[in-house]
Amino acid sequence: xxxxxxxxxxxxxxxxxxxxxxxxxxxxxxxxxxxxxxxxxxxxxxxxxxxxxxxxxxxxxxxxxxxxxxxxxxxxxxxxxxxxxxxxxxxxxxxxxxxxxxxxxxxxxxxxxxxxxxxxxxxxxxxxxxxxxxxxxxxxxxxxxxxxxxxxxxxxxxxxxxxxxxxxxxxxxxxxxxxxxxxxxxxxxxxxxxxxxxxxxxxxxxxxxxxxxxxxxxxxxxxxxxxxxxxxxxxxxxxxxxxxxxxxxxxxxxxxxxxxxxxxxxxxxxxxxxxxxxxxxxxxxxxxxxxxxxxxxxxxxxxxxxxxxxxxxxxxxxxxxxxxxxxxxxxxxxxxxxxxxxxxxxxxxxxxxxxxxxxxxxxxxxxxxxxxxxxxxxxxxxxxxxxxxxxxxxxxxxxxxxxxxxxxxxxxxxxxxxxxxxxxxxxxxxxxxxxxxxxxxxxxxxxxxxxxxxxxxxxxxxxxxxxxxxxxxxxxxxxxxxxxxxxxxxxxxxxxxxxxxxxxxxxxxxxxxxxxxxxxxxxxxxxxxxxxxxxxxxxxxxxxxxxxxxxxxxxxxxxxxxxxxxxxxxxxxxxxxxxxxxxxxxxxxxxxxxxxxxxxxxxxxxxxxxxxxxxxxxxxxxxxxxxxxxxxxxxxxxxxxxxxxxxxxxxxxxxxxxxxxxxxxxxxxxxxxxxxxxxxxxxxxxxxxxxxxxxxxxxxxxxxxx
Length: 706
Fold this sequence. Notes:
Elements: H1 2-8, H2 20-27, E1 45-49, E2 52-55, H3 56-74, H4 83-106, H5 113-121, H6 127-133, H7 143-156, H8 161-192, H9 198-209, E3 211-220, H10 233-242, E4 252-261, H11 266-285, H12 289-296, E5 304-307, H13 313-316, E6 324-331, E7 334-358, H14 365-383, H15 388-395, E8 406-411, H16 417-424, E9 430-431, E10 436-438, E11 441-464, H17 469-485, H18 489-498, E12 504-510, H19 523-532, E13 543-545, E14 548-558, H20 569-589, H21 595-602, E15 607-614, E16 620-621, E17 625-626, H22 628-635, E18 646-647, E19 651-661, H23 670-681, H24 684-695, E20 699-700
Antiparallel strand pairs: 1-2, 1-20, 3-15, 3-19, 4-12, 4-14, 5-11, 6-7, 7-8, 7-11, 9-11, 10-11, 13-14, 16-17, 18-19
Helix pairs in contact: 1-5, 2-3, 2-6, 3-4, 9-23, 10-20, 11-12
């Protein structure tokens, strides 16, 4: 309460309490559902930070607080898809406390009461408060409202449950302010220490401004088929040994798996259609249709007030009536019912139309007369039965012709006045009988939706056709039968081939992964792979998901800090192939003295080309692509000099400098110095966090409990 007391010395106005934006900022939108596996985990260690064991209770305390704040702000439990965010946020809180906290203390970093006041109502207001108290009309923070809000905080605690919750949100927000400011200060110490010399700024300017025009021969590696080069284990191992810094081994797992999808069958579809028919009748007569739709929908939507041009496509062209239900409409496995609860005249007018524009060559009378006669002829064809859309594709002279002339919906003021007046004057749908002249030419117009300012209150009930429990049992039994033949990886692959299934792989799974390719919320698979699985073995039973069963085999296990050929085989093989190809290409063209001879010796696959005005900062060349080393070599050449062929990123290159244009001298390099400073300051937050993780020996073992 110290902060509130301090602030109240500077304030004295009252206002309605604002809390949602503050709570959402604290939570950050990343959340954990209440059925966490952590609950009741006791003192299980889930990692280490700076030598401190992080047990489940400490971690759970952070999760509980974040979950509580989310519930207060949203009046609901967080969903499954929000789990990973809050897990990471809770872990970051502990990392700040045990990893960064001691570093703050070492240098005497503090936050005074006056600074906290500044974060709430001073010059450097906290982003959470900015979000809550910015006036939408002016875009400015309303400090008076902040003061009014704070005056009421003390009185909230004793009023009622809702007020007590608002009070709790503020108190937690206040609790986090000092740590937030300390982190900002700590990062500022590093950011402000970034210094750029005048020489660096001049070099930046030169890199962007000096130019070299080049002539080159480029032989892409793909000119030699990969299939002709088969790297040996010795080559792969040697390459890895020579390039260890490029391959950072992580604690990861690789799995192969097959899926048994839960696809509804005919019986499921028939039962579902019967159910939807019943829902339609109940929906039409429900006293509270909004509550009914929310209760029966698989993905509830809020009641919407929709203008005609934003109606769902399925009902957009219908003559809608109040209290009527439309549908069911089927799209894939999704079935939707719409109930029009109310229809009101409000808002701006809009209409929908198509047109065929016949332009004139000039405003001369003869040109306009010719265009008008042509337009009149097309109009007559449409009146005679020709398709408007087909005529638009043939005769239309603007960008809508390929869409049959469709202009879509447009509101007042969007079209030139003569066109708008013609469309808005129409009493119904259909072809306008006369041409409309505008500054662009003559228009043949078909009104597809007449002028309206109606808004529709639409209640949506959406259901998804899913497999029944009967179908689930059939598919599960199929997966179990498959597993009777697949007892290890060898028999697993044989069973896949026999059953004509598709094997899929997930490479280098991380222990905190939430997805396995397209399998959502796949923590069960990840936890098995890290905690129970053994390389070469299958999980004991299929993994059960909402839309599938999955049979999984663990194929590789990698340990942090120990890169192996097996872990990086594909990448290593690609690099070895490049080296071998480069040797073959250089051997073939290396004896040539000119670029033209090199091109002739290699043949059609070699590219001989020129590139004007290459800058050092561009780091790329036509055909060659991104290759800062090749560009650097070019700038190191004297004018007229040629390099020998060398291995580049995507092929073998030989360069000749044709013309060099130095950067003009300028008096002030300040803007370039600023650009470098901003570029270097950008990643400070990320690199600082990574440095603390490495130096503090952070070990994240949350996988044990979630």
